[in-house]
Design a protein that fits this description.
The structure holds 2 protein chains of 2 kinds. Chain A is α+β, with helices and mostly antiparallel strands. Chain A is built from 5 helices and 5 strands; from the N terminus they run ββαβββαααα. In chain A, β1 and β2 form a beta hairpin. Chain A is globular and about 45 Å long. Classes of the chains: A alpha+beta, B alpha+beta. Chains A and B meet through β4 of A and α2 and α7 of B.
Chain lengths: ~160, ~290
């Protein structure tokens, strides 16, 4: 069943024709063309599809598109300012915290939410904040270091 | 996925009426329901989003001095609520074991109950606290203990058309404490092989006046451990007592063997987790009781 949804993604208003069965992930990728958000497991275990909903990280695969109206959605496309990477993106580059890159958008969204709520997290808090983001290349250390470096630089 | 209509009632009466039309499922956080719909494990012609009914998302003090948690309140909002964090820390801590941050920002405490997984991490602390479940349906309101909501894996005792409105924690008793511990091979994003919740209240003489033990993942539903509770009542906290109560809890358990652990292993975990949860209760009440 088709439904017209008005939603705010990365600060832009969209009126988009969707199917009631679409997830927020389907809405972002297939209806709005925002393919930076990736689908991993599709059932809420891997965190690859993490986006921010009213500032809080959620798995886009577990949210119905119908739930989006009235909420502020921010995706990985909303992080950089023009060609200037967000400090977290820049830090992941500098620390080699991206391996195959597939989990990176989700990790960045979780890290952004963490630093907005807790600007000076401990390593334990960083690890807990990204516990719902699985990296199958198995390298969390550089990711954690990158997030810690941004927190330290923000002072 | 089957076609469905998405509905967004704004009052409890409207939500009950929508559910009463049949072939509907309620949606709170969706962390269980959405994958169930996508994988065809559940189907419904209508999905009723409960998050716009204020009574279902609020967390508020009750007239009796307890706290009522709206069934659709998220795990994150429960954990952060000052009343819950201050008076029921075992509840605040246990809901932070449900998935990761993304899941806790969506998953509801009511959904953790109504999905009726034997392993639900949010549940044993509620049972240990003697929390009550408030239900609304076509025949009006009723109330039961949280453990009475569970009928079996994935099944509740709610009648068709009924929904869980709130979970009510009673006024905290003086000299009482609760704890929930679970065992998982991985620290995060895992399902409990076994879990144990404990609540004890000390009398003026320092002996245990009341005790409740609630177990997860060791029966078709979360269960009380009655013989362990009987062992504790009237006795003074000690390592020997807590370990004996753990052994009783292991016998109260009715575990199965599956990919996460054998029945025998689950019983052994139950004994250890129960004794340690009791030890944590004692520590909160100011006495160190070291158990194995």
């Amino acid at each position: 069943m088709k439904t017209l949804l008005s939603c705010t993604v990365n600060g832009e208003e969209h009126d988009v024709l969707a199917d009631t069965r679409d997830t927020l992930l389907d809405l972002l990728r297939d209806r709005l063309g925002l393919t930076g958000t990736k689908e991993g497991c599709g059932n809420g275990n891997c965190g690859t599809c993490t986006v921010l909903m009213d500032g809080a990280p959620v798995n886009a695969c577990l949210v119905l598109a119908c739930e989006a109206p009235g909420r502020r959605i921010v995706t990985i496309e909303g992080l950089a300012t023009g060609d200037a990477l967000h400090p977290l993106q820049q830090a992941l580059v500098e620390h080699g915290g991206t391996q195959c890159g597939f989990c990176t958008p989700g990790i960045l969204m979780s890290a952004k939410a963490l630093l907005e709520e807790n600007p000076r997290p401990t390593e334990e808090e960083i690890r807990r904040a990204i516990a719902g983001n699985l990296c199958r290349c198995t390298g969390y250390r550089k990711i954690v270091e990158a997030i810690a470096a941004v927190a330290a630089a923000q002072g | 996925m089957q076609e469905f209509v998405y509905q967004r009632p704004e009052t409890l009466a409207a939500a009950v009426a929508a559910l009463g039309e049949g072939d509907a499922r309620v949606l709170a956080g969706g962390t269980d329901l959405v994958p169930q719909l996508r994988e065809g494990r559940r189907q419904a012609a209508r999905i009723i989003d409960l998050k716009f009914v204020p009574e279902l998302t609020e967390i508020a003090a009750t007239a009796e001095g307890g706290v009522a948690i709206g069934a659709a309140a998220t795990a994150a909002s429960v954990a952060r609520h000052p009343l819950v964090a201050a008076r029921y820390p075992a509840v605040a801590q246990s809901v932070q074991l449900i998935g990761g941050t993304q899941v806790q920002n969506r998953a509801s405490l009511g959904g953790n109950i109504c999905n009726a997984a034997p392993s639900a991490d949010g549940v044993p602390a509620l049972i240990a606290h003697a929390a009550r479940a408030q239900i609304a349906g076509p025949a009006g309101r009723r109330e039961m203990s949280v453990e009475a909501v569970f009928a079996g894996p994935g099944r509740t005792t709610l009648a068709p058309g009924e929904l869980l409105v709130a979970i009510v924690l009673p006024l905290p008793a003086p000299r009482a404490a609760a704890a929930y511990l679970r065992f998982t091979p991985r620290r995060e994003m895992d399902i409990a092989v076994a879990g144990a919740g404990a609540w004890i209240r000390l009398g003026a003489d320092g002996a245990i006046a009341e005790a409740r033990i609630a177990l997860a993942s060791v029966a078709p539903t979360p269960i009380r451990a009655p013989t362990a509770e009987a062992k504790l009542k009237g006795a003074r906290p000690s390592a020997a007592l807590f370990e004996a109560a753990g052994r009783r809890a292991a016998q109260d358990a009715r575990p199965i063997s599956d990919t996460r652990g054998s029945a025998d292993y689950r019983r052994k975990l139950t004994a250890v987790l129960t004794a340690r949860a009791l030890s944590q209760c004692a520590a909160q009440l100011g006495s160190e009781v070291a158990v194995a």
